[in-house]
Design a protein that fits this description.
- There is one protein chain.
- The chain has helices spanning about 1-25, 45-60, 65-70, 100-115, 125-135, 160-170, 195-205, 220-235, 260-270, and strands at about 30, 35-40, 75-85, 90-100, 140-145, 145-150, 175-180.
- The longest helix has 26 residues, at about 1-25.
- Helix 6 links the parallel strand 6 (about 145-150) and strand 7.
- It has about 270 residues and is α/β, with parallel strands linked by helices.
- Helix 2 packs antiparallel against helix 4 (about 100-115), helix 3 (about 65-70) runs parallel beside helix 8 (about 220-235) and helix 5 packs parallel to helix 6.
- The chain is globular.
- The strands form two sheets. The protein has a five-stranded mixed sheet with strand order 4-3-2-6-7, sandwiched between helices.
């Protein structure tokens, strides 16, 4: 009889422990909750996907990034990573992880390297931003800042307009930073644009201290990711000239639907799927 009575007691204790741990995590405060959203669209070759993954893994575990975390007001961050392509392909690589020491960063890096991505059709930056914003709503820690770090090698061509997703995220107080991959080669390069960095500045990124760091050669990628993470963890903006001449410019509005238009043109030319 004692054994029978003991079973519900143990179950209640275990349930209480799980709830208590969840509440403890929710009370844990971090300097930043950072979502790493990496592009695996078909315009990325398998070699480029591996370079991207190794670059992120090396940067996350680097002494410079760990030092940036240590120098924060709380000395810890919440970090997660997912891959994206079309509006329906969103896959978590590493779920929310508390990082407050080098061992945590190395464990996160090891999980990144242990996984493998395969390229998927279409490019939905809007879907990636929307999904990242949802992940930030459910982050199990209290964060001083919410940041989306999004990398990609082409403009949005699937899902809703990227500006709508960006603006919705900004209304929630989220900062979006960009790492446009302006490299040459790889399949599907006909969908890319030469001024992808401008596209990211005008159409993708925004929020307090937001910035764009373009990559024009894969050899630059690990350093670019490391620099980007340090800026995001510290909440800094890249250095700008302190004095700038005052001038009036009348720029033409940037076409944030350029990716969709390129897709439509190629679809009509080559009878691609909608």
């Amino acid at each position: 009889m004692w054994r029978a009575a003991r079973t519900p007691f143990l179950f209640s204790a275990a349930l209480f422990g799980a709830v208590f741990q969840s509440q403890a995590n929710a009370q844990e405060q971090v300097d930043v909750a950072l979502v790493l959203a990496i592009d695996v669209s078909r315009s990325m070759s398998q070699e480029e996907l591996e370079l991207q993954r190794r670059g992120y893994a090396a940067a996350i575990a680097s002494p410079e990034v760990i030092r940036a975390i240590d120098l924060g007001a709380r000395g810890r961050i919440a970090l997660m990573m997912f891959e994206w392509a079309n509006d329906n392909h969103l896959r978590v690589i590493v779920d929310w992880t508390l990082i407050d020491e080098a061992a945590d960063a190395r464990a996160f890096s090891d999980q990144v390297l242990a996984d493998m991505s395969f390229s998927q059709r279409r490019t939905s930056i809007s879907g990636a931003i929307t999904h990242a914003a949802e992940l930030l709503e459910d982050v199990p820690y209290r964060a001083d800042r919410h940041v989306i770090d999004i990398s990609g090698d082409g403009p949005n061509n699937h899902g809703r307009a990227v500006t709508l997703a960006r603006d919705a995220a900004l209304e929630k107080g989220i900062t979006i930073n960009g790492l446009p991959l302006m490299t040459t080669g790889g399949p599907g390069s006909q969908f890319n644009i030469p001024d992808l960095d401008v596209y990211y500045r005008k159409c993708v990124t925004g929020g307090p201290a937001s910035f764009v760091i373009p990559v024009t050669d894969w050899a630059q990628f690990p350093d670019a990711v490391r620099r980007k993470l340090i800026l995001e963890i510290g909440g800094y903006e890249p250095e700008q000239p302190r004095v700038q001449p005052v001038q009036f410019t009348f720029e033409e509005p940037y076409d944030c639907m350029i990716g969709e238009k390129i897709w439509d043109q190629l679809r009509e030319q080559f009878f691609l799927d909608p």
